[in-house]
Design the sequence.
């Protein structure tokens, strides 16, 4: 009976140790550098920093893409990977390298961004483009025009 208890305790200790080794990576949340290319754009890391897709030109081969952590901090959001539904509803492209507020000047893009499906369900994309436009003065230009 004592040997049975000892083996159960040993088994439990091994289980706890193996789970504790896996737990930190599971709790880490979104790490931009670990994301595949098709999930990078419009993601926010566990540290509330935006992920961005960067191109790396190669001399003797196709351009490679890597997901990186930017220095842009997102207030009130972390551990976020935008859904495919929001990407479609807002008319954005996950394979975009660099994001510009110039797209806001295109009526088709602006109408998708302001659509009910995007505006009410996709706060990350709205926050990104609103802050981008504000930072580049696009909102001021529109109200003063």
Sequence:
């Amino acid at each position: 009976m004592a040997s049975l208890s000892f083996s159960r305790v040993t088994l439990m200790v091994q289980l706890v140790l193996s789970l504790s080794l896996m737990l930190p990576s599971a709790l880490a949340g979104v790490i931009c550098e670990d994301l595949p290319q098709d999930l990078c754009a419009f993601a926010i890391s566990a540290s509330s920093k935006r992920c961005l897709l960067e191109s790396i030109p190669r001399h003797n081969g196709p351009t490679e893409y890597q997901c990186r952590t930017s220095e842009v901090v997102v207030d009130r959001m972390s551990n976020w990977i935008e859904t495919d539904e929001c990407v479609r509803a807002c008319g954005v492209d996950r394979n975009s390298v660099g994001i510009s507020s110039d797209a806001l000047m295109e009526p088709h893009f602006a109408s998708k961004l302001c659509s009910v499906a995007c505006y009410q369900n996709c706060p990350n994309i709205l926050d990104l483009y609103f802050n981008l436009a504000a930072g580049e003065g696009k909102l001021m230009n529109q109200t003063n025009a």
